[in-house]
Every structure is written in structure tokens, then in C-alpha cells.
Amino acid sequence: MKIEAVDFFYLSMPVVTDAGDGSQDALLVRVAAGGEVGWGECEASPLTSIAAFVCPMSHGACKPVRDVVLGKALNGPDDIAALAAAVEMECMDLLQAAHTFSGIEMALWDLLGRKRGVPVYQLLGYAKAYPKLPYASQLFGDTPAETLAGCRAARSRGFRAVKCGWGPFGRGSLKDDRDHLQAAREGLGPDGKLLIDAGQIFREDVDAAAERIALLEEVDAGWFEEPFLGGAYAAYGALSQRRGKVKVAGGEASHNFHMAQHLIDYGKVSFIQIDCGRIGGLAPAKRVADYAVAHGVTYVNHTFTSHLALCASLQPYAGLKDHVICEYPFAPKPVAWDMSETHLEPDENGEVRVPDAPGLGVAMSRSGIGKYLVDVEIRAKGMLLYKTPSMAE
Amino acid sequence: MKIEAVDFFYLSMPVVTDAGDGSQDALLVRVAAGGEVGWGECEASPLTSIAAFVCPMSHGACKPVRDVVLGKALNGPDDIAALAAAVEMECMDLLQAAHTFSGIEMALWDLLGRKRGVPVYQLLGYAKAYPKLPYASQLFGDTPAETLAGCRAARSRGFRAVKCGWGPFGRGSLKDDRDHLQAAREGLGPDGKLLIDAGQIFREDVDAAAERIALLEEVDAGWFEEPFLGGAYAAYGALSQRRGKVKVAGGEASHNFHMAQHLIDYGKVSFIQIDCGRIGGLAPAKRVADYAVAHGVTYVNHTFTSHLALCASLQPYAGLKDHVICEYPFAPKPVAWDMSETHLEPDENGEVRVPDAPGLGVAMSRSGIGKYLVDVEIRAKGMLLYKTPSMAE
């Protein structure tokens, strides 16, 4: 079959705040081929990723993603790999292309799985999918009392693991950070798994990050996530010498396989966190999972948005029995929830499972999507390059 | 003073072909503050970089570049550094932001230099600027005869160095590549400096790249540029064990300091090539130059477009006497030439010098810009986010 259509849907909450909450908008991709459709989701900045799809060509190595994808063959996983390689070469100088293609690639797998009647994780080479232990991923509160309440809420909903991140952490004194960390542990209880996300706040300052190690050890933190800028491998590597019992996690910024590989090789992280909406989709994420296994590193999804993104993010490591933890958007905005009819709820063991259904296993909600659809129009060189498509298929 | 306005001008040839010629369009940035203006240029995909400037905010770490820059203080180099750091944090999840900010940062330096009446290289910390030896940068011909003619043309215009790249190289047989390399050497003459650019054609295939080493040695090539994908440091590192007398160059894809640092540390390149329109502007490029000096690596500009970009690209290493070679767009399209009144022509020694004038030292041409200006209109969420500005200041 041929890729007949690729449509982008920019969804947004009516009001977007400057909180570090990535669930406030979304960019959905619908691909059509051979009478079937597949869905994917790009992270982040919907308008910019749409522009990378429709922009006029600058030269032979800076083409719009559209020109590389539309009309191409889609008969199996090899065709998806060929498209990814073509995007790398033909969109070489178009930085945003990796994010744009991520959602497309995800949708191609979804479509292929639906067509063949098998879950995507099987197409990726796994015989079966193992359950994952979701951690409730949330922001630190503005005050320790809010942080405590947030962790308590997650616990009361049955989560055995919680991640607190961003917000005030690393911006004030060590005492402030300690108060938040202690509050988080108190809210979660002594036996829960507590994970801490610094949101790159220390940039390249290894000393500033290292000062927090003792505070994280006090609360038995399961990891110290993204202390530094995504590409600051030397800082990561230096911290690995001073991390005590605390393990370091990172990788969400990776927009290709190599960035994740280097964070493992040079940054010496213990957990590699991959956002399938950024790294180029599911195949490069699976390649990272293979690399992680070979290097004794644990693979974790990075997902703070929808259950489409969540179901996609689990596929690349669904078959890794020992890589059990998974990020789970705990309090997403309504746009992230309403866009799909399918949602992954933790079971009585507090575990989630990737849907045992064709493709990504997610039924999208036409009314949910329509409710948050944003009007966009892009014109250049006398042409209408993009206009928000109708939800009719 | 405050940054009062940031305007983007998308210029393009009427027809853009899929040749690997990056001079076919351009994105200019004009910044206004304190009664002065400064100019910069972004690489590449103008529409996408404009979108990254005006897009609606997705969340606190995915803001449009506009929100981070407009209205901010600009009183000295520290303010430019603060803005760059703010973009890193507040546009963290907006991949294209690095390219968008590159042109802005360049324009901020230009403006500051004009305001103070000093060349930018002095603001960057150099007491004086040394002449550079330009190499005529061009594509391989479709046939060896065309490659020969191109190199002969550069030689006859007085160039002592030539770079041939892209086109058929690495796509056919070893014999085909050898024929092109021999033709290039013949056209340039025995004493000229011949540089070869593979344009990432070998992706991660170290063997395929290594097979060309002997052919490059035969023609005494000065470097072997970008054999691999920009982030494939392991492939670069592996080739460094097998490169014989041929030195390896790379780095143009770097969209932050760390990528260049890692190509030096892990990729073991001998030449680090920086595009100021991608890496975030002049300050991170200067940081790379400092790093290169400290590690025995030679800094080279990457510039295939205008003389605004060329004059900007020389500033970060203007004061490095021993880093003499520079990329010089040999046969740019008219849009790249006409946009400025200032052009750097090689002198009787075949050398070029950064203008000894305030800022970047480039007078822009209003009529030249107007001639190639592209109409663009971007609307989203009921707002007109961008419309091509008038050329009136």
C-alpha cells in the first residue's frame, strides 16, 4: 500500500499556563493507507511541527517532511525504516523534522498493526508484553504542603510509585529542596518508590547537583532525573562519580538514537528515558531499548501527555520483563484525556498493560478531538500550505 | 536599552531545486533596540524557524522564542548570555528554537557592536582579526568533467583552496569517486588545498567511509568532511583509528555547544566546523573556538550562504592567527549575494578579512532584500501570528 494522506490535528486547552505541564496541548497525526488509518502524537510545539511538515523546500537536504513521506510504500517494518533514513538525509538541516516525523512514524506502526491484526510490540519483535509498574508523574507543589498533598493523592489512588519534578526544586536553598523531598516521602509513605526530576535546572553545574545527593539519599529516592541540560554528557559523567547510592536518569530530550546512546556511554546514566514523540518514533526507541539491555541500563518511557502517547511509549520495551517501571501521566489536562476512548488504568496490583489489540490498541475519540481542535492556517509563496483539517475521515 | 522589535524576513529564489545548495533561500532577522538595528541570519527552513518564534506556548518549558526575547534588556554581552540561557530553559522542548535563536543572537551582537562602534570580534574578546584563507566551497559536478571545470574555475578566480562536496560522492562505485577526486585535483592544480565533503552519505558505515581513505590520500585531500550522521560520534571515533594521513572534519549540524564538544572529545575530529546560524549564534561558537584551541583542534566556519552569514561566521575565530582556513560560498545564488551591499572579496593574496567596522560590518541592501522577500502568513487560535513585515524600518 501507499501512504495516501498525513493529517495533523493541533489540540489545545483554551488557556495554556506556563506551568511545566506538557499535557496542555497536543499534536495528533493521522495517516491513511490501504483503507486503514493509524494515529500518532508529536512532542511538542504543535505549530512548529506542522510547519516542518509543510514548509517550502530550502534545498535537497532541507525538504519538508511531507515531501519525504507522502506517496511512499508502506508494506512492512522495512518501509518504515527506509522512511526514517530518508528523513535523516533529506531533512538533515531541518531541526524540527525529528519531532514531526516521530508522530508520523508512530502512526505508521499503528496502521501496520491494525492492517495485520497484531499489536505493535509484536511487529517490533517481542513475543509478549509484560505488565509495567506506573509511577504517578506530577510536578512539585509550590509549597511542601502541596507536594505532600500531591503524593498522598497518588498513594490513595493506588500508585506504588510517584515522581515529583520541576516547580521550585533546585531554584531555592538546599533547605527548601529538603523540605519538598521530605514532604514527598511523607505523602507517599515509607514503602513507595519515590523518583525526583530536576528538569535540567542545574544546567552544567555538577557541584550544585551533587549537593542534592545527600538529600535524595535521605528520602531513598529511586533516581535523580535530568539534573543537567540534555546534551551535557560530561556533567552527567562527572556526577556519576559522586552520586552515592542515588542513580541518575535522563534522555527525554533525545531526538535521535545517538543522543540516547551517548547519554548511556558518556553520561553513565542508570535509567534511559525515551519520549517516542521526539526520538523519531518507535523504531529508534526500540533500538535504544536493545542498547540499554546490552549495557545494563534500564529503559523507561517518557510520557506526560495522552494515553495514545502512553500506549505508544510502552511498545518499545513491552517485552522487557525486568524493565518494569513506567511513567504515567497522573493529572493530565482534559485535552490529553478526552482525545481517546481507550485509557490505561492501573489494575488491582497497581500495574498497567499495553493493550492486547491491533496496532497501538487505542480507539481515538472524534468528539474529544473535535472539542479541542485549534484553527491554524499557514500560507507562503502564494500557497495555502496548511489549514486545520475536518475531523471527517 | 530594551529589545523593542524582532522581525523575520524570508527570502527565496523564485525556483528552489533539490540540489544540495543551501544558498537558495534565507531567513534574515532584524533586531531593534535603543535606536539601532542589528542583522542576523538563521540556517535553515525559514518557515519553520519563523513558526518557532511565533508559535503559541505549549507549557513553561516550551515557549515561543519571541516570549523569551522581546522586551528584554540589551546592555552588554552578559545580557546576550542570559537570553541564551533563558532560551535553553524556556524553549527546552521546542527543537527548532536553537536555529531560530541563532539569527537573533547574531543580530544582538551586531546591534551591540554598532551601538559601541566596535567590531563584534572585539566584543567576543579578540584584540585583532587575522586574515583567513578562503576555500571555494562547491558541489561535485554530475560528471568528473564538471567537477574538473568547477575546480578550474575556482583556481582561475584566484582561490588557493577548494572544497568539493555532496552530489554523486559516495553514491556510486569507488571508481566513480576516484574519478571525481582525480578530476578535482587536476582542476585545482598540484599545489592547491583540496577538501572533500561527504555530506553524511555513509551514515554510520565506518567501512564504507574507510574505503575512501586511500582515494583521498592519492589526491592529498586536506580533510574528509562529515562522512557520517552529525551525531554518530562512535562512527567518527572508529574512523579516526583508520584515517591514515587524512584528517576528519565535521560539526556543522551542532545546534548547541555540547554537540561540537562531543565531536571533538568522542569523534576525534581534527577540524570542527561551526555554523553560527545553527549553534545558537556567536557566543556558543566562540566557546567552541576556545575549546578547539585547548584541544589542538582547528576551528573552521561553516557558511554556504550570504556574506552576512560569512562575516558573522568569521567573528568567533577572527583572533585565532593559526586557524587560517575559512569556508567561502563560491557560487551562491543571487538571493544570497544581493541581500547585502557589503561583500568579502579575496585580496591579492587570496585572503579575506572580517570587516574592520562596527558590529558585523555588513551593510544590508533594502532593495536586494525586497526583491526576494516571500509572502508568509501564519494564523492560529484566532490570532494573526506572523505576516511578512514591510521593509520600511
Describe this structure in words.
Two copies of one chain form a homodimer. Chain A has about 400 residues and is an alpha/beta fold. Helix content of chain A is about 35%, strand content about 20%. The first copy, chain A, is built from 15 helices and 13 strands. In chain A, the strands form three sheets. Chain A has an eight-stranded parallel sheet. A three-stranded antiparallel sheet of chain A has the order 1-2-3. In chain A, helix 1 crosses helix 4, helix 6 packs parallel to helix 7 and helix 11 runs parallel beside helix 12. The longest helix of chain A is centred in the N-terminal third of the chain and has 20 residues. Chain A is globular, with a radius of gyration of 20 Å. The model of chain A has no long low-confidence stretch (mean pLDDT about 95). At the A-B interface, helix 1, helix 3, helix 11 and strand 12 of A face helix 1, helix 3, helix 11 and strand 12 of B.
Give the topology.
2 copies of one chain form a homodimer.
Chain A: E1 3-12, E2 25-33, E3 36-42, H1 46-54, H2 65-69, H3 77-90, H4 97-116, H5 120-123, E4 133-139, H6 144-156, E5 161-165, H7 174-188, E6 193-197, H8 206-210, H9 213-218, E7 221-225, H10 233-240, E8 248-250, H11 257-265, E9 271-274, H12 282-294, E10 298-301, H13 307-314, E11 325-329, H14 334-338, H15 366-372, E12 376-380, E13 383-387
Helix pairs in contact in A: 1-4, 3-4, 6-7, 11-12
List keywords for this structure.
alpha/beta, three-stranded antiparallel sheet, 13 strands, eight-stranded parallel sheet, homodimer, 15 helices, 393 residues
